[in-house]
Amino acid sequence: MSSENRATHALGRTYPGGMSAFVAAMNAKAQSLGMYNSRFYEPTGLDFRNVSTAHDLSRLVAAASKYPSIRSNSTSNYGSVYTVRGRQSYKNSNALVREGSWNIALQKTGYIREAGRSMVVKANVQNQPVTIVLLNSPSSLTRVNDARSIQSWMLQTRS
User: Fold this and answer.
1) Which of 12, 25, 107, 148 is most buried by a 10 A CB count?
2) Pairwise CA distance, residues 63 & 99, whole Å
3) What span, in angstroms and rounded, lies between the C-alpha atoms of 50 and 117?
4) Percent of all residues in the chain with a pLDDT value above 70, rounded to a whole number
């Protein structure tokens, strides 16, 4: 689903102990998941100092996929919430989800200038679970096409 960085920032700001305690908890959770090459400086992912690796992100995908609400919300085409300002609607930013031809269990796209376009996808290809992590794509289209190429390669090698 499209990111809601204001909500993420609000979670950090209102966490017991404030933003620094929230970020410390994020880093502790990352370490407990075996994400030894990841460091977080703020919760939204918009700070270039936040770093991770494809291997670490695959560990995060494995952990996040255990939560039905994360799986459901990350793979829905549209969503909405009601706030004091009224209804706020969101659409999924991942073309693979919108097209509906993949069996996607969980996904997240991202972008900051320093890191390019990124995407993680946990899907089933020929009834086999696979996690694809794409980092530093020059555009949203290239990251989607790279995922399609990986899927095509997997289908060819398993035929």
Assistant:
1) 107
2) 26
3) 15
4) 97
